[in-house]
Amino acid sequence: MNKSLKIPIEANEIIKTLNEAGFECFLVGGCVRDFVLGEPYKDLDLATNATPNEVEKVLSEYKIFETGLKHGTVTVIVNSKPIEITTYRIDGKYEDFRHPKSVTFTRNLVDDLKRRDFTINALAYDGKNIIDEFGGVGDIKNKIIRSVGNASERFKEDPLRILRTIRFSSVLGFTIEENTKKAMFELKHLLKHVSFERIRVEFEKTLLGKNAKSAMLEYVDIFGVVIPELLTMKGFDQHNPHHRYDVLTHTCVALDGATCDKNIRLAVMFHDIGKPASFSLINGVGHFYGHAQKSYEISGKILRRLKYDNKTIEYVIKLIKHHDLDLQATEKYINRLVYKLESVKIVKDLVLLQRADNFGQAPIHNERLEKFDKIDEILKSIEEKQLSFSLKDLKVNGKDMLSLGLKGKEIGDALIFLLNAVLDEKVENKKENLLKFLKQFNK
Ligand code: ATP
Ligand code: MG
Fold first, then answer.
1. Average pLDDT of the chain?
2. Residue 91 CA: which ligand 1 atom is closest?
3. Residues near 258 by Cβ (< 8 Å), separated by ≥ 6?
4. Can you list the alpha helix ranges (DSSP code H) found in 22-131?
5. In Å, what is the CA distance from 209 to each residue of 59, 205, 277, 335, 356?
6. What is the pLDDT of residues 358-380, one digit of tens each?
């Protein structure tokens, strides 16, 4: 055991208080795995043999929220930090592939560890001893993901675990143990019973993992059960000297070249999903006319199915729709693009998407990298200059137009005319300059 595994003082304080009252208390799940790995943990989960009532009594000095009493969970605030404490439990039968029908509390830690998905997630630690009933520490050292108990049975109880396996392999860069892997493929059809909200969480974490490329390539058939559109990309030969990879391989390599950002990774995953549907072979060379529009339509459907919020959907499909634009590294072009796409941020992200797309092409087009750098500089200077890109940023308004004697539709036309002049840097966005500029033309 790694002696340097120090647990945060907040968790230590709770463990000590419960121990002094005669109860067990351990850190469990992901945080112990991350401690052993030497990685920063995301959240601290404690498990105890005390019932929720007993926990509340022993910790009565603290602020406690009854966040999940039915499942035996309370949240305690220590040093302004929330920590979840859950009573050891055994999950009842999973009847609807979603939730265990019943939850039974137990006084036995090993029973609680047994219900957990993977050996690497079935560890407990109290600052002194690590409880490792299923060989989780060894699996962490050997970088292996293995079901606790019989993989098929565990996947039948809760098929989401099939995707959780892929997610952990992507995030941690671990290999999936053979029996576990075999059961995943055999039982993948059960994913049809899992809610899309739960699927979305694991799919997104997989895309954001450091091993997203190999995870999506190796397990596309599994994700294909719930996102069948992905399967159209698999092995789809592009018949084009610029595209040595098939569509799926190109996409997955591009993931490797993408920043670790939700919108970018989603856009990369789906940017070419419309290619198979828009393929044509002309003189032996593959073309994909209108594929960006097709990808936009298909990815919109997928993201809605995955129950993404509207803001994310709109943003990601907008990136996809424009992913193929032949960007120009000139101020005039970029100013107009910012105006058209309505923010500097989305143009910046479009460059990130194109960088990833370029990374996925063999050979990489180096001349484009210089262009992207130049565009980034232009975007930076736009931010610094705080240029105006919408009518509301313009330093004149309808009233100013009225005072110049314009009326009705003329007012709107004049404002748009001025905004365009600002975008083309023909006039500075200052009231005096704008009015003078307009007077020259408004004869
Ligand atoms: P992360 O670091 O991403 O939060 P995690 O391992 O903490 O990863 P969570 O989804 O937060 O994962 O779940 C916490 C713990 O609960 C897991 O480590 C595992 O022990 C258990 N667990 C979560 N979901 C399941 C499941 N579907 N089946 C069995 N055990 C699960
Ligand atoms: Mg967690």
1. 93
2. 29
3. 264, 265, 268, 352, 353, 355, 356, 359
4. 30-37, 52-58, 109-114
5. 38, 6, 29, 34, 15
6. 999 978 888 999 999 999 999 99
Q: Is the shortest distance between the CB of 160 and ligand 1 below 6 Å? A: yes
**Residue 386, Ramachandran bin (φ over 0: left; ψ between -120 and 50: alpha; else beta):** left
Q: Whose CA is nearest to atom 1 of ligand 1?
A: 30
What is the CA(84)–ligand 1 centre distance, in A? 13
The response to whether residue 149 sits with its C-beta less than 6 Å from ligand 1 reads no
Q: Which ligand has the shortest distance to the CA of 163?
A: 1
Query: What distance in Å separates the CA atoms of residue 190 and residue 184, rounded to the nearest whole number?
Result: 10
Single pTM value for the model: 0.90
Q: What is the pLDDT of residue 1?
A: 46
- Helix, strand, coil % over all residues of the chain, rounded to 5: 55, 10, 35
How many angstroms separate the CA atoms of 63 and 301, rounded? 44
Most confident of 37-46, 162-171, 336-345: 162-171
Distances (CA, A) of 381 to 325, 328, 350, 373, 393: 21, 16, 17, 13, 17
Q: How many CB atoms lie within 10 A of CB 53?
A: 11
Instruction: Indicate the residue type of 88.
Output: Y
Q: What percent of the chain has pLDDT over 70?
A: 96
Cβ of 145 closer than 6 Å to ligand 1, yes or no, is no
Strand partners, 377: none
Task: Report the alpha-carbon distance of residue 119 to residue 122 in Å, rounded.
Answer: 5
